[in-house]
Amino acid sequence: MNTWEISELMAADLAGARVDPNEAQKALAYLRSKRDPKRFFDYLQAVVNNGQAVIRSRQTLDYYRSLQQICLRHLRGMEYQEMAMTLGWALRLLRYYRAVPEAVLRQTAAPELRRVTPPPVPEPKPETQKEGLALPAVGTIFTGEITKLDASAAVIAVEGLNDAQAIALLSADVADLRRYKVGNAARVEVVEQKTQRSGRVLLIVKPAPRPRDGQP
User: Fold this and answer.
1) Helix, strand or coil for residue 24?
2) Rounded CA gap, 93 and 80, in Å?
3) Residue 164: which of 209, 111, 125, 124 has the closest Cα?
4) How far apart are CA 202 and CA 216, in angstroms?
5) How far apart are CA 166 and CA 135, in angstroms?
6) CA 64, CA 83: separation in Å to the nearest integer?
7) CATH of domain 134-207
């Protein structure tokens, strides 16, 4: 199983446990600052054991308990670089799942946790397909309609393709989403292209600069 597949499973577990991505992001920041997997797991254990001394919210402590279990399940045994990459991608996907709740289907995975998995993807209708249409490559700038939006991510349609084939994801990590509205157009640049297990392509994008006069 590769890093992307592990990230998908981990994001599904985090979404199923309703872990707050902002709290999980703090844990990722700690990992990146220490660059040491053992210290990372020690940190999570310390929060779970002693967090009530500084964390007043029971819900926040529950987030960390779930986060610790999920990290142990998916990240144990990894070196720092792989661990940071896997957790980072899982959190990006988690924000997407929160923006598009219908993208996942809850099911029981373990007594203490709920796991979610992508629902079956319907076959695209013939009229929505275009033969020979290529996906925007990394570095490509395109404009698409914002179809869904929340505080963590915006989902952007890819022209000529339906949601079962491809979507673009603009994260709050790289853009001020207060500038965007559902139904408006967004000009973005593709920074990464990932194929999900369902076969759908996820385009990770960032805001693109406005074109100069005479440029597309």
Assistant:
1) helix
2) 20
3) 124
4) 24
5) 8
6) 17
7) 2.40.50.140
What is the 8-class DSSP label of residue 126? G
Of 99, 98, 103, nearest to 117 (Cα)?
Answer: 103
DSSP state of 127: G
Q: How confident is the model at residue 68 (pLDDT cuts 50, 70, 90)?
A: very high
**Domain locations along the chain:** 3-117, 134-207
Top-confidence residue, 1 or 18:
18
The set of residues, in sequence order, having a beta carbon less than 8 Å from that of 132 and lying 6+ positions away, is none
Q: Residues 96-123: pLDDT tens digits?
A: 887 776 665 433 234 344 444 444 444 4
- Residues 133-192 have pLDDT tens digits of 578 899 999 999 998 888 778 889 998 888 888 889 888 888 888 899 999 999 999 998
3-state helix, strand, coil in the chain (%, to 5): 45, 25, 35
Q: Please tell me the distance from the alpha carbon of residue 164 to that of residue 38, in angstroms, as a whole number.
A: 39
Residue 46 is given by DSSP the state H
CA 96 and chain centroid, separation: 5
pLDDT of 93? 86
Question: What is the pLDDT, as a whole number, of residue 55?
Answer: 60
CA angle 100, 163, 91 (to 5 degrees): 40
Q: Are 177 and 153 in contact (CB under 8 A)?
A: yes
Q: Are 121 and 164 in contact (CB under 8 A)?
A: yes
Among 27-36, 67-76, 156-165, name the one with the lowest average pLDDT. 156-165
Give the Cα-Cα-Cα angle 81, 155, 179 (nearest 5 degrees). Answer: 100
